[in-house]
Write a structure and sequence with these properties.
There is one protein chain. By secondary structure, the protein is mostly beta strands. 13% of the residues lie in helices and 51% in strands. Strand 38 and strand 39 form a beta hairpin. It starts with a strand and ends with a strand. The N terminus is likely disordered.
């Protein structure tokens, strides 16, 4: 357990006490001052919710007013921003904000970075509460980032990004806190009815899907009771085509098995240190997302000073997908290599392989080997939520409460068939593979399982959030506007269980189901070979599942290691309390406060001795200390925060902020798994005792609001991350799980003799696991500008510079040094149009978890557009066009010549007919 109370925290507590002591004197001197800024801000926020915002300029003004009136450093968007600017979901709307960047590995953006921080280190709330989210992709690494593609944008009425925290806000964000607000029935006219009907089209595969949404809100004449309902059906086809490479091997690793490689080294044409791509794979990911969601708010205001709201949410998101990867595996049989070509930076960029294809053969043997993985995945997330909030206003005080539960569940399945072809091929790191004999390569009778029939995985992923919060605010008339205190309890539980069933029968491609030849237009746009564009494929997901599940006796045999290594449960309980003072007059306002958080973690997972892992049988008896292990840990943190805003003039505002924040490791890293090799004493492990990320932050901004619809703002941020979790090697003493087994006796004697173990079997393992103690710094700034010109034209643009590195000089995941957005718009009469050009420079990626492996993403640019036409006050048309450049997503290792993968996802067009009454 750690217990820490910083000097900054102590200073803020002292300041709060001093503020209270001075209040009486201050109140007597300023009893006739203007209304408190806290009350004014609430009044303005209330107006923002009740005013009907229409049009691009009106929506930008509403967003700008939220930013202007805030105490903290805040950016905001409204539902009109999402509809009037290019976006298919909330994340893409957020990309218009300074400091916000998106990752485009898949066409539909899922997560966002704020001020250069990993998406997992942000916090996203809906109406102030968390939304449980199950993992959508089979075998994906769980994380704490919010998946915006699972949330219908129609449910959001307003959204704020807090880049500097306040003590009253829940803990958990290093980058920023995003709060989405749904529309409430008492804030809009009764019998409001809006909606849309549309179609979504992907030009790369010429596929279109329908979408529709409707929102209805009603309240009685006295505005004491109201109900609103939002429903949506959304479908979108996603296709990702390109090349993948699964790592590199030095030439020195194959010369003994490849006479050609040895001869080339001897001739000086290649070097032993040159790196060869392991497999240049042609990848084709296909998914039709089908999302149905319903949200509702039931609002009751029995008396003027008492208000309740019951929020309900239900969403079902079908994310079935098929990923087909065809990879000629040149290094699986080095003896068949006939040529290798050295390129820049010591990378082998091309080669050839000789081999003989086999027809209708389930056990083909060849010196050229192509495997085609066919991964069919079933994925359907069901998310439910109930949230009850209430507010009572007394004479100069307010009491707010909120409680609820959110659950999410996804019983995923993945079927794998891996078919084989033995014919020769040429390959190039730029163009992919090209078969020597396309006739046999494109004949399904030459493709079959090669001894292994595949498997079927069933992965049940569940998440649950339970929370409750109580806040009390006392208003004052002086410079001290109000003091707020509150307490919050939140419990998050997440679990994963994986069962892999083995033993499907080996089949030919014709028996599995032949789906003809591919026609990958995306691969064509990347300049890939004819083989990459056109090659055999299965008949689809149903054919793959049927081929596996129809095997005689299938569904009994299971793989123990898959279960042990991928089954875990983590529960995190946070108990927090805060004290915050809000101060201000006409020219100066802000807040100062401190938040105390007690965190309890309960982590469960399998710790398996190497001997059992090697046996891979269910009958293995675990020694003491092994098996399903549960461990507990707890942490205490004081999180001070200070925000101040000074109105130099009515239109120029200077802001400053200081804070300390924490965030938490991905859930799977907290599980106590321990996968060890008891012979060589190495292991990979989780770390249930890992402490939160912790950062001290300083922020500032200057804002000039030079007319009601226009502004220029500059900001800076500095984050000193005092505990950045990294994967590191360490030495841990553990009982050797194989020590007492009879056939381990000789190894045990040798380990004792070398001093690596005691006679009781206590050994020093070299363990790779997430550890505390990493340090990192992030510093940078943003410039943002928006202005409405004459004749309907306007512009908003922003630029962000973020320089980040770890203590050892490494890069931080998802941090781009440079990013910018330029978005001109036009709105005059019934016509509206907007463009959005965004760019972000290269960044470290490799997975949505902090401490990601060293895969870099090249700079990415995107051009989007929206056209709108208002037929009359009730009906309009809109066309969203995304990724008009069909930009290439390029990942590399070390240098850009060391390709990891490259994809294109096609252009998306979304045509909608909108109505409102």
């Amino acid at each position: 357990m750690s217990h820490r109370k910083t000097i900054l925290a102590a200073s803020i507590i002292a300041s709060l006490c001093l503020s209270s002591a001075l209040y009486a004197q201050d109140a007597s001197q300023q009893s006739n001052t203007t209304q408190s800024s806290d009350q004014a801000d609430q009044s303005k926020a209330k107006q923002l919710e009740t005013v009907t915002v229409t049009g691009i300029r009106a929506s930008l003004q509403a967003s700008m007013d939220t930013k202007r009136n805030a105490d903290a450093i805040v950016d905001a968007i409204t539902s009109e921003d999402i509809g009037k600017f290019p976006a298919s979901n909330v994340a893409e709307a957020l990309a218009q904000m300074p400091g916000v960047t998106l990752d485009r590995q898949l066409g539909a953006t899922q997560r966002v970075s704020i001020n250069g921080m990993d998406p997992s280190l942000n916090l996203t709330l809906l109406d102030g509460h968390p939304v449980a989210q199950a993992v959508w992709l089979y075998d994906d690494a769980p994380n704490r980032g919010f998946n915006y593609s699972l949330l219908a944008p129609e449910v959001v009425g307003r959204l704020e990004i807090y880049k500097s925290p306040e003590a009253r806000l829940p803990e958990g964000a290093l980058g920023g806190t995003i709060i989405m607000h749904t529309i409430k029935p008492l804030d809009v006219p009764s019998n409001t009815l809006t909606g849309s009907v549309g179609v979504n089209y992907n030009d790369m595969v010429s596929n279109s899907r329908p979408s529709a949404s409707v929102f209805y809100s009603w309240h009685n004449d006295d505005k004491t009771f109201g109900v609103d309902v939002s429903a949506q059906h959304y479908e979108q086809f996603q296709n990702r085509q390109g090349l993948e490479n699964y790592g590199y091997t030095p030439v020195s690793g194959i010369v003994s098995a490849s006479p050609v490689a040895a001869a080339l080294v001897a001739a000086g044409k290649i070097k032993l240190t040159d790196q060869i791509p392991n497999q240049i794979s042609v990848s084709n990911f296909q998914q039709t997302e089908k999302r149905d969601s319903v949200t509702s708010n039931i609002q009751w205001k029995p008396i003027d000073n008492l208000n309740f709201n019951l929020g309900l949410m239900y969403a079902k998101d079908n994310l079935d997908n098929l990923n087909q990867s065809m990879y000629p595996w040149q290094l699986h049989s080095p003896a068949g290599i006939t040529s290798l070509t050295e390129g820049p930076n010591g990378i082998i960029v091309a080669g050839s392989q000789a081999g003989t294809p086999c027809q209708n053969n389930l056990n083909c043997t060849s010196t050229a080997q192509t495997f085609a993985d066919n991964n069919a995945r079933r994925s359907e997330i069901t998310t439910k939520g109930v949230d009850l909030s209430g507010e009572y206003k007394g004479d100069g005080w307010r009491l707010n409460g909120q409680a609820g539960v959110s659950v999410s569940r996804n019983p995923m399945e993945a079927g794998v068939k891996e078919i084989f072809y033995g014919g020769g091929f040429d390959w190039s790191i730029n163009k992919g593979p090209q078969y020597t004999d396309p006739t046999t390569a494109n004949d399904p009778t030459y493709w079959a399982d090669n001894g292994w029939g595949g498997n079927l995985g069933k992965e049940l992923y569940k998440a649950r959030d339970v929370y409750g919060q109580l806040d009390f605010t006392k208003d004052f008339d002086g410079f001290l506007n109000s003091v707020a205190v509150g307490a919050r309890y939140a419990s998050h539980w997440e679990s994963q269980t994986l069962n892999v069933f083995t033993g499907p029968q080996a089949l030919t491609l014709d028996q599995i189901g032949y789906g003809g030849l591919t026609s990958l237009d995306g691969a064509r746009s990347l300049g890939l070979s004819q083989t990459a564009i056109q090659h055999v494929q299965t008949a689809g997901a149903n054919a793959i599942f049927n081929a596996i599940e129809s095997s005689p006796g299938f569904g009994v045999a299971q793989d123990p290691n898959s279960y042990w290594d991928n089954t875990f449960a983590v529960q995190q309980k946070n108990t927090a309390a805060y004290l915050q003072a809000n101060f201000g007059n006409d020219n100066l306002h802000g807040n100062i406060g401190v938040r105390y958080v007690h965190t309890e973690n309960t982590s469960s997972g399998y710790v398996i001795p190497q001997e059992c892992a090697s046996a891979d049988t269910w009958g293995c008896v675990f020694p003491a200390g092994f098996g399903y292990i549960t461990q507990n840990s707890s942490h205490n943190n004081w999180l001070p925060s200070f925000n101040i805003a000074y109105n130099v003039t009515p239109d120029i505002i200077l802001r400053g902020a200081g804070s300390e924040t924490i965030s938490y490791a991905p859930y799977n890293q907290m599980a106590p798994y321990f996968a060890a090799n008891d012979t060589v004493l190495t292991a990979a492990a989780g770390n249930p005792n890992i402490k939160p990320y912790r950062s001290v932050n300083w922020d500032g901004s200057a804002e000039w609001y030079f007319n009601p619809e226009s502004m220029v703002a500059v900001s800076f941020f500095y984050k000193n991350v005092l505990n950045y979790i990294v994967n590191a090697a360490s030495v841990q003493e553990r009982i050797n799980g194989s020590w007492a087994l009879p056939d381990f006796a000789n190894n045990a004697a040798a380990l004792v003799a070398s001093g690596q173990c005691t006679t009781a079997g206590l050994c020093a393992y070299d363990v790779t696991a997430p550890v505390d103690g990493g340090r990192a710094k992030v510093k940078g700034g943003t410039i943002s500008y928006q202005q409405a010109y004459g004749y309907g034209f306007g512009l908003r643009a922003n630029y962000t510079y973020s320089d980040a590195s770890t203590k050892t000089g490494g890069a931080l995941p998802y941090n781009s040094k440079n990013s910018y957005t330029v978005s001109p718009y036009y709105e005059e009469g019934p016509y509206s149009a907007s463009l959005a050009y965004t760019y972000r420079s290269s960044y470290l990626a490799g997975g949505y978890v902090a401490g990601a492996p060293s895969t870099y993403i090249d700079g990415f640019k995107e051009l989007d557009a929206t056209l709108g036409y208002e037929i009359n006050k009730n009906f309009s048309l809109s066309l969203n066009m995304l990724n008009l450049l069909n930009s290439k997503y390029y990942a590399y290792l070390g240098s850009k010549t060391q390709m990891s993968n490259e994809y294109v996802t096609g252009r998306q067009y979304m045509l909608k007919a909108n109505f409102k009454f």
